[in-house]
User: What shape does this take?
Amino acid sequence: MKLIPVRSWSLASQMTIWYAVSSFALVLIATGILYHALYSGLAHEDDVFLAQNAQTLKLLLDKPKDEMDEFRQELILEQSSGRPVWVWLRILDGAGGLVVETPDMSRFLPRQMFPPPSEETQEVWKGETVWDGQETYRVVTVSAEWPAHVPPLALLQVAVDMGQNQIVLTKYRKRLLIVLGLSLLACAWGGYWIAHRGIRLVKEMAQTAAKIRSTTLDERLETSGLPSELSDLAVTFNGMLDRLEESFSRLSRFSADIAHELRVPIHNLRVGTEVILRKARTMEEYQEVLGSGMEEYQRLSLLIDRLLFLARAESETVQIQLEKVDLSRELNLLREYYELSVGEAGIRFDVEMPPNLELPVDRALFQRAVGNLIENSIKHTPAGGTIKMEVTPEVRKVKIAISDTGKGIPESQLPHVFDRFYRGDASRSSSSGGAGLGLSIVQSIMVLHGGSVDIQSQPAKGTTVTLLFPSRKDDENVILSSFPRQP
Assistant: This one.
């Protein structure tokens, strides 16, 4: 059964939810604080009212007994007036006997519903909230001295009906719910608007990027007016496009160069064959054509071999076999190999190197890299000139410099000499046997060894190519290695 991938939420949706939740949470916290402040404020007002009534009862304890009787009558009249009673008063003597209370108080607020006497000395005692199953009350118990009574102690119990407060709080809660509902809608809409406004620039960048094709790699994202984060993204993307454009351009040039290099020998072979087939030829003429064709075959074989080598060298998994080689022996072998060519060209070939110097390299690749440089020097050094090969050991490195006294390379062409199929002038044309791949191969070999190649040249004075090989510890013998590619 094929599983259908689940798409994650879009960035705009996630931003909308986060904006809405965070802003609504702030509104919810703010309304909760306001509701708590209102509740605490009403409770404090009730506590102040309880304290005032407790102080009134304290003053009553200092009055004669007849005034106590008058107070009791006042409470009875207040109860019989038919108006709701929202303040309840009770005085108990030190033995717990009832002295006076609001009528029916024992039925609604028995003594056990009141807390123990408060020991606070301030004028405002903090009451407690109790519920009798139907109504909510704010109550307080205060102890007081009663000089005219034995024992000289009294308990004052005061309660206030919180019904009005509950009505106010209920209305406030309803209004808060309405405000919270509207706030939730406003937060969701605001989050949606902010998220889509913020993501709009990203969508515009995506639309621009979607229009870019292999034929329109010159287009770039506009970076002006973008926030710093998106500006960095656009700059990075434009840098990637620069590299892609350069790679496509190089690939196009490379394909055109390959087509040209293959077309010339194939054209020569086809023309030679057509000419020889027009009529009967002598054996000598056939041999001449076959000899000419053999040269073109050799040229094609060399070109294909070099192209295959460059393709393999670019593989991320390519490995080279390193072994300790005696540089003196290897370079002397190369000098002997090219001795005939140097002598025919009338060029002097000098080699300077310290004795007993070993270097871990791939022998075949090392010979090919140095041999390519010697061949280039022979081609471009006139008779009477000099080719010099110098080896210099450095810290964990060995430098091999091949210099000549040829005509040199113009400074404007130096950045391109390692490009494939690059030929700076007519003397480096295909007629001379070069395909413009020699220095590219040298560079690839140095990359495989983890080294580097550098070229310095002055017109009419000569050229120096420097190979810098990394050296290893003396106890390393054979190493199978795959070096990382240099950018």
Notes: The mean pLDDT is 78. Residues 318-481 form a domain with the Heat Shock Protein 90 fold (CATH 3.30.565.10).
